[in-house]
Amino acid sequence: MTCQTPSFTQLLSVSGALAAMIGSLHAIPANAQEFSGQIGVATQYVGKGVGKSAEDPSVFGSAEVSSGAFYASVFASTAELSQGSDAEIISAIGYRPEVAGFDLDLSVINRDLPGTRAGVDGNYMEYQADVSRKLGPVSTRLRFNYTPDGFAATEEAWWIEAQGAVALAAGAKASAAIANRTADGGAEYVAWNVGVKHKLTDRVALDVRWFDTDGHSYGEAYEGRLVGALSLSF
Prior knowledge:
Strand content: over 45%
Oligomer: single chain
Number of helices: 1
Distance between the termini: 34 Å
Shape: globular
Largest sheet: 12 strands, antiparallel, barrel
CATH class: Mainly Beta
CATH topology: Porin
Number of strands: 15
Strand order of the largest sheet: 1-4-5-6-8-9-10-11-12-13-14-15
Order of helices and strands: HEEEEEEEEEEEEEEE
């Protein structure tokens, strides 16, 4: 397959989403907020274990503002999906309390896929709950993600994922995850990934990861792939 760089339209969708989010932060009192962000490039874009950029490189970015345990965030990436979508924008509001030694992350998420063909549902809501715990160098997370009406013909869908990570020497972390997706009117499969993330500097990190699923019969996007991503945090 010929490797293509992200198009101007794709980059415009991603940069526009991030600019809108960052601009909205000016309405929040400075003494009530903490801000963080990230920009990066990847050899391809993967979401829920599935290739979403036709194996082409992707550009991504994220921004988050928080006040206490509450936060609002946006993530955007170039994409290339079968229904014409050329980007994916994920906006969320959430609450991160600590309960009995466990870190919770409860969020309401909106997924928007600009460029989706007319008549195809390219905007939908998700409801997500993460339960995490760290014990020394080991951290674990269990995720429950539910949508009542998903992308295109997909209706109700669940994504349940278990993730584990261990800190290595010299700013590196190895992690692995396995997830199960069930859907009414959509693909159902088990997905997994394993990889290493290494901090090259305080702000620059490199992640190299293998993704795969048991749903190869659904098409090339569900097959195994090695993905590298370079990110800059600020």
